[in-house]
Amino acid sequence: MQTTGHTFKITPSVKREIVKIVDERVREVHVTKEDFSELKSIVKELAEAQKETQKEVGRLDRTMQELADAQKRTEVKVGELAEAQKRTEVNVAELSEDIRTLTKGLSETRGEVGGLSKSMSYAFENEAYRYLPCRACLVVHYLEGNPG
Prior knowledge:
Layout: H1 12-29, H2 33-131, H3 135-143
């Protein structure tokens, strides 16, 4: 870059204005030692809070995993219970059919026992009559003076 040889001179009033503007800007961006210490303290507190948050997140992750595992076990058990319920329903249906069959058989057996009872009663009665003396004989026997 070529220079033309002109020099630029700053007047005292311009210099004062420049210094005034620079001082203002420095004051605006100036960080005091107290400000810096306060910021360090805040950052330290935030770091500690972050550590605690990370620990809590870790605990929550473990708890969530435990809950997920428990949920899986519960789902397996519920599936097993559903299968057992199905088997129970089949068994109950089979038992109900068996009870109906037994009830019908019992009813038939009662009828047969009742018929057999009547038949046996008639047979015993007929057999008993065979051993009874005839009425006419009893009357004659009684009249002859031999009661009984």
